[in-house]
Write a structure and sequence with these properties.
The protein is mostly helical. The chain contains 17 helices and 2 strands.
Length: 435
């Protein structure tokens, strides 16, 4: 069976559509959100077990998926230990719950990848998600929408999908489709002004143009630079907090206040960052808090008014990079950065193969690279991974492209036709294993 007809692919696409349909907010089913998360986790784990039993093999060369799986397993183990012994219910496993889809790639030894069909389905999915996101933004721009909506603000985390959709349309030179995504992005920014979205667009759009021109070397350098800046920013803030904080305040106020006409919360974020860095040093530089799931810091001393609205005086750390550093220390943080680096590195290696013989494959891998850079950008200034349903579409793209990369870089690849690819909807070689 083709990848586009596999159980895990169908589940991934269906859940992405469900996220943007957003029945929890529409019907006010917030009390069922935990049940949905546990069901999601159960399905993802069941799929991994199914493929592991069916193929009885693990591709140890897929290091990035195995690192993601290790983070989930260790975080879940710590959560269960703390729950049983201390009744402690916080968990860091949520940050890697949707990464289970990505981890499943390591348990699928062979797959026929129908690239054209997958690109078509992704395009339709991005259009569907962008349409719903646009409708939500327009509805919440009205006084009636703000008064009656379960959540009055547009959830900016989901804006990453229309952004990737815009980049995909640019890669495929589809102007009308690009206009649809662009309109969605503009309306979303008006409905919920956010500098994160602007920053991600500023980074991803030039990268998209470079990839469309097949400037692979420049694109690779640019992507790795983005990762390096995000990875070293916590340490730079630790050693040069005063100097860097002034630059951040200036940039944030210029974009969010002057351009978007919104209120800048840079001071609030910097207080959280400063406290998180202190917490990391006070606990353990090497292992952090040991994946205990506490992603908050106390800011009541610096902001006494915060206690009036939040009795515990706690605030969530606004950076997945910093959260990972405080949760797992230098050791876990090194693996986290390695995961992201391997995602980028393997795709750029496969990109050179695809550029010579398979344009649709080149587009698919390029989309995953853009998604990786967008994810790095969002995670650097927000707790993006903590919301598994928002991160789900990105891990889905990583899963699809990981299988494509493995096939493109397999030893039997030749310049004319990479193995395990079926760019059209025709017959499939029966010798090749199916998902």
């Amino acid at each position: 069976m083709l990848l586009s007809r596999s159980a895990i692919y169908t589940f991934s696409v269906a859940f992405t559509a469900l996220v943007f349909t957003d029945p929890i907010s529409f019907f006010g089913w917030s009390e069922y959100s935990s049940i949905i998360k546990y069901c999601y986790t159960a399905v993802a784990v069941a799929l991994i077990i199914m493929y592991a039993v069916k193929y009885n093999s693990v591709n140890v060369r897929m290091v990035a998926p195995l690192i993601a799986l290790s983070f989930f397993v260790m975080s879940t183990g710590v959560f269960l230990f703390n729950l049983i012994n201390y009744g402690y219910r916080l968990s860091y496993a949520s940050a890697f719950t949707s990464a289970l889809l990505f981890a499943a790639a390591a348990f699928i030894p062979y797959v026929v990848i129908d690239v054209d069909r997958i690109l078509k389905y992704l395009r339709i999915l991005f259009m569907f998600c962008a349409g719903l996101y646009l409708a939500e933004a327009l509805f919440k721009l009205t006084s009636f929408g703000r008064a009656h909506a379960f959540a009055p603000d547009v959830e900016f985390g989901r804006s990453i999908v229309p952004l990737i959709g815009l980049c995909t349309a640019i890669l495929q030179r589809q102007r009308l489709l690009a206009c649809l995504f662009l309109v969605t992005m503009v309306v979303a920014v008006v409905a919920r002004p956010t500098s994160t979205f602007i920053l991600a667009a500023i980074i991803c759009l030039p990268l998209t143009l470079a990839l469309r021109s097949q400037a692979i070397g420049i694109s690779r350098f640019f992507s790795n630079t983005v990762l390096a800046v995000a990875a070293f920013s916590p340490f730079a803030l630790y050693f040069f907090f005063d100097r860097i904080s002034e630059l951040i305040q200036l940039a944030e106020s210029s974009v969010k206040s002057d351009v978007l006409g919104a209120h800048s919360n840079a001071d609030f974020r910097l207080i959280i960052i400063n406290q998180a860095l202190r917490q990391w040093v006070d606990q353990s530089i090497l292992i952090g808090s040991g994946l205990d799931g506490n992603t908050t810091v106390f800011i009541g001393r610096e902001m006494p008014n915060w206690i009036d609205a939040h009795t515990m005086g706690l605030a969530t750390i606004h950076s997945d990079f910093l959260i990972n550093l405080t949760q797992s220390g230098l050791i876990g943080y090194a693996f986290f950065i390695t995961l992201l680096y391997l995602v980028l590195n393997s795709r750029f290696r496969a990109l050179r193969v695809a550029a010579a013989c398979n344009r649709p494959l080149f587009t698919l891998i390029s989309v995953s690279i853009i998604a990786a850079v967008a994810l790095i950008t969002y995670c650097s200034v927000n707790p993006f991974l903590q919301y598994y349903y928002v991160a789900h579409p990105i891990w889905m793209l990583f899963f699809i492209s990981e299988l494509a990369v493995a096939a493109a870089l397999s030893p039997s690849t030749n310049r004319d036709t990479p193995p395990n690819f079926h760019p059209t909807a025709g017959a499939v070689d029966p010798v090749q294993s199916a998902v």
